[in-house]
Request: fold
Amino acid sequence: MIPVDHAMKLELIIENYGLMEAEEYFMNLPDSAAKKAAYLGLLRGYVRYRDTTKAEALMVKLYDLGLVASPHPFNEMMKLYLLTCEYRKVPLVIQQMKRNKIPCNVLSYNLWMNACSEEEGYGIAAVETVFRQMQNDKNVEVGWSSLATLANVYKKAEQPKKAILVLKDAEKKLSTCNRLGYFFLITLYASLKDKEGVLRLWEASKAVGERISCANYICILTCLVKLGDILQAERIFSEWESNCQKYDIRVSNVLLGAYVRDGLMEEAESLHLHTLQKGGCPNYKTMEILVEGYVNRKKIDEAIIAMKRALSMTKNCHWRPPHGLMLAIVESLEKDGNLEYANKYITDIHNFGLASLPLYKILLRMHLYANKPPFHILKMMDEEKVEMDDETHSIVKAFTL
Reply:
C-alpha cells in the first residue's frame, strides 16, 4: 500500500467502524509518510464527531511530527470551533497560521468571517475587516463563495440591501462549467425574499452545459414555494417532468407539501395520483405529507391508511413519523368515540415500537368510557417499558372501582 491508500482506508474505517478503530489504525501506521497522508482523515473524523479535545491533541502531535505545513488542518479546526460554537478560538487559529507562516486560502477567510459574524462583540465591522484582508491578499482570489459568505452575514444582521448588492457581485464570479454556485446564491436570494434574483439565476444556470439535476429542481421549487409563488413552481415542475429520465418522487414532494400547507388537499390528491400514473414511487415523506393533509381535513380513515403505508417504509430508513401526527389521529378517534379503530391503530403503532404514553393514555380513557377492560393496553405498555405518570395511574385505578 502507498500512503494515499492508507488515507483512504482510514476514512473508510471511520465511516464503517467509528473513531476508536481509526485511531488504532493511525497509531499502527508503518512510517511517517503514511501518517502524513492519513492524519487529515483522522482530524476530519474528530470534526465530524465534534471531539475538540482529541482534535487539539492531534494537532499538537502533528506539530511534533512536522506535518502541519498547509492550511487544511487549520481549516478543519476552524470548522470544529464553528460547530461547537467556540467562535473566539477561530481568530486564535488564524494567529497560529500567521506565526507558522501558513498562508490562508479562500476557505480560511470564509470560516474566519463566519466566526466573526457569530461571536458577540465582533459583528459586521470585524467581518468587513477580514474581507478587506482577503481582498488585499495577492495569493487569494475572491470568488462567489466568499461574497456569498459576506452576503449571508449582512442578511443575518438584517441588512438586506447590502446583502443583495454583494450577491449581484457574486453572480459575476459564477462559473459556466458548474451549477453549485448558482443554487447557493438562489437559496440566499430566496432567504432575502428576492424572487427576481431567484428566477434570474435559475435562467442563468441553464447556460451551464451539464444536465440540470433533480437536486437542482428540488432547490428551485423549494425556494419558490417559500416565496409563495406556486404558479411558477408548477411551471418549473412541468418543465422537469417533460425532461426527466427517471421519476424522482422527491421533486414532486416539494409541490405536494406546498399544496397541503396551503390547504389545497384536492390539488395534493390529484398530484399524488398523477405521480403514480407517471411511474413515481411514493416514499415515507410522500405519505407523511398526505397524512398531515388528511388530518387537517379530518379525513381520519385516509390518514390511517396513509400512516400505515408510511410505517411499512420504516424498515429501510431512519425516518419515523412525527409524534404530533400520530397523536392527532388518536385524538380524532377519541373525539369520534371510535374505539375499534383506535385499538387497531395503536396496536399497529406498538408493533413498530413507536407508541408512547400520551397515545396509550388516550386509549385507556376510551376503554374506561366504554367500560371495557384495558389488559391488552397494559401488556403493550409493559412490553415497551412505558412508565405511567400520575394521571395514567388514576385512569388505571378507575377500572378497579
Observations:
- DSSP finds 23 helices and no strands in the chain.
- Residues 212-282 form one domain.
- The mean pLDDT is 94.
